[in-house]
Structures are given as structure tokens and as C-alpha cells.
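Worked problem 6 (solution included).
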Amino acid sequence: MLKVCPKETASMLTRDGVRLDADIYRPDAEGKFPVLLMRQPYGRAIASTVVYAHPAWYAKHGYIVVIQDVRGRGTSEGEFNLFINETPDGFDTVNWAANLPGSSGKVGMYGFSYQGMTQLYAAAAKPSALTTICPAMVGCDLYADWAYEGGAFCLQSNLGWAIQLAAETARLKGDISAYQSLYAASRNLPLSDIIPLHPEIIKNLASDSYYHDWLDNYQAGEYWKNLSPNIKDLDLPMLHVGGWFDTYLRGTIHLYKEMVGRSSCAQHLIIGPWAHLPWGRKVGALDYGFAAANPVDELQIRWFDRFLKGVDTGMLDKPPISLFEMGKNDWCQFDRWPNNRHKSYFLASTGLAAMREDAGTLTESCADVYTDDIFVHDPWRPVPSLGGHAAFPAGSFERSTIDCRTDVLTYTSAPLTADLHLAGEVFVEVFCTADASTFDLCAILSEVKDSGSVYNFTQGYVRVDSDKTPVTIVLQATCIQIAKGNALRLSLSAACFPAYDVNPGTGAPPGVARAIDAKMITLTVSCGGNSPSQILLPIVDRT
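Solution. The predicted structure is:
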């Protein structure tokens, strides 16, 4: 590897005269080098080192690395307005970076989350120097892939992020009082205000936050279409990175599928057993082994060497999809996103699935006998979130205590007679009615060990506002081996708080719904006979 020059700081002007500042890491060597660009809002010194190697490491591999503060963040001038300026500013920055001294004229971008989104916004403007991107953990559709899931507001992630960004705004303004209040709120989210989704601290200390707009626009529409990156004409080689417990995995897969469907360029996808951060072998309560250790830095160097330097790294000779199979704890490769046959497991019950863990079962054939399970959602004591992709901390946890609650229905299969391999999308179809005009359903799939412990591996959430049945719940995509002798369990509840906001059952918009108005909701889940409630599992043959 090459030596690296001392870090330098450089500035550029956008087309409207706003100064943007960046740190630059250069190889200490003669010649011209491609540029790797990251644009981020958290202060450029961090450089996404929560999941990536330090920029100096990339510079040692023969790249000029540019880490830029976006408009209104770090030391860059201007006003920060979530995502609004990232397309023109990204275009201008790519062109500036391509013309830096020592640049070969080719630019690649990398980064996750917001830093992944800045790649999409910049690429949408089609700067000629932008040759490839590596977006990780992004929300292609900001409504369905980021802010809301199944029509329900992703409360814990959205509120926590809004407070973080508001605190950074206060810090940059030197407002000590506001910063300390927001800092304290970030450590103990304000979830008990009169309007739970719209706490006073956000109203008073972040009146200009995007958060208010996200609550006001609680249905898909023009606001979200205009805010999301316009990728319809995008055509670049991309390395897509996701995690099975990342809250934005839907967006990562959405983008990959869309690009594969129309792109003339290479599209590769890697999904590990990771949360939003960190990307390592231990997630939640489980250790997925050495194979789960973060391989992304090495992969990105190979990707950039191929597309920015023209070096044949052999990367394109391998299948384009690498999925980490949990349980087996190793990587598996696919030529295409798995669209496998779905195996049905049908719900059956004695009517006491809320009371006894042996009363609700999963069977491979639908029972002839029709049965109802009735349970009551109490907003005073909503079912708590534990792990998964939408809560903090994310990942897999032992959840048998939650499954013992009487407002959680559980359906458990017999011990498996052979290993079961799943890869792809998971769906639950449940015949459910309620005595309220709107209600929520949370579906969690877990592996029940022969010891009796229960570990979640995927879940989904939906807000229901019609009497149409069955209700379809789209669960997080997964890749897992359920070991012979263990069992599958489906847990159904009407809340998963604070990962998602509690549905008050009144139909009031989330940004104005008061806690005092929330209703108890009685739900009935039917199975068997003419109500074939079921799980649809994506089976793969790994023999």
C-alpha cells in the first residue's frame, strides 16, 4: 500500500455561491488517481468510520479520498434542508472533485444511510465524471422505504434521528441550552407527550425540522415523490450493501431490483447479518461467527479498482448476489434475487393462542375446523419492541417473555425433521377483524430452539384501515437456516412500541393524535376452514 500525505482541507463554491468544505486524503506518490467521494451531514471528521475504514486506508490503495460536509453542516456554509439541495450540490461537487490536482478525472462515491442517499441524488443529475457508486442502506422511496412501514410511522428511528439533526443545528449555532435539552432527549426519547408523535421539544427547539413535514404527509403522495431521488434514468455500475436487521433494507433491495431490471451496467448486492450499525459478527444477542465480520471495505476497493482503474479484480466473474445465511453462518451466492416457491404454514388454534404457547400451531395443511383467537390491545401497555430491524438496539434477541403476554398470539410448528433454508421475501396473510376503524398488526417470525429459547429473525408491520381480509403483512427479507429439531414461531400483536407509533384506533392523523384519545381495541384472528391464515416462506434448496 502507498503512503498517504497529511490531510488537507479544500473548499468549493456551488452554482449559487455557497462554500462547501472537504477533507482530502492523497496518496504520497506520483501519478494521477481516481477520486472517492463521500458527502455527509455529521461533521466530516467522522467520515462514516462507524462502519467503514478510515479514508486514509482508501487513499493507501491509490485513491484521492474526499469527505465533504454537505450544505449547512460541519464548516460548510448555507442552510441545511434535508435532502433538498443534494442533487445540484452533488453534481457540482463531483465536477469539482474530478478536476482536483492529481485526479484522473474519474469519480466514485461511497457511504451508507444519508451518505448513501447523497450518492443517489448526485447520480440523478448525471455528472459525466461519476463512474460508479456504492450505495449502502438507502431509502429509494423515502415514504415506504424510510419514514413509514406498512403505513405506520417508524417512530423510534425517525424521532431519534430528528433530535440528532436538531441537536447538531443547535451546536452549530452555539445554542447551549437547546443543544443540552436535545442531547438529553436523544438519550431518553420523549414518548409521553400529549401528542406522542409530536413532542414539545421538537415543536419548540426544531420548528424548522423536516420531521413536521414527515408527520403531516402520512400517506404516499407528491411530497414524497418530489423529495425522493429521481433514479428513473440512472444507469451506473453499483455495489449495493444491506443488512438483515437494517431498517432501510427495503430500500436497498428496491434499488437493486429496479437497477437490475433496466440497467446495462453491473449490479452487485451483498447483505450481511447487520443492523444499521455496526457491521460485525455480533448483532443483538447473537454471534454470527467470523464469516460475518465486515468485508465491505475490501469489496469496495475491488469494485473501484475494476471501474475506476480498469483492473480485472475477478469481481464480475462471481454471482452478483452474496447473502449471509444466518444459522448456517456463512455466505451463499445467487445469480439473481431469489424468487423461490413459497411454502405455506397455516395457523391453527384451540382459541387460546393468546394464553398458552401450545394452543396455537403452524401446520403444513389448513385445518378443516374454523377457530377464532381474540385478544385486546391496550394502549396503556402496548406490546414492546425488541430487536428486529425497526427498534434500537436492532437484531435478534430472546423474546419468550414477550410471547407470554396475553396480547400476543403465538403459533408454533412442530420441531423440524430437516434443516429449513429460507432466502427472500416473507409474507403473512391473516384473517383479522377489529372493533375499531383502524388497527395495527405486527408479525414476528422466530426460531424456537430445542432448549425453549425464542430468537426473532424477521418481522413486519402494517396499519389496517379497511375491513378487507386477509390482511397481508410484508416481512423483512431474510436468509436463514432453521436447524433440524428447532421450530418456527409466528407472533402476532397489535403494537410494537416504540419502534412504531401506537395506533390510537381513532383514525386521527399521527401528528395530531392525542394519547388520551387512544382506544382499547379488540381483535379477532381467524384460522382454518374458510379463513386460511398462513405464513408464506421462501424456500431454497441448499442440498
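Discussion: The first helix runs from residue 55 to 60.
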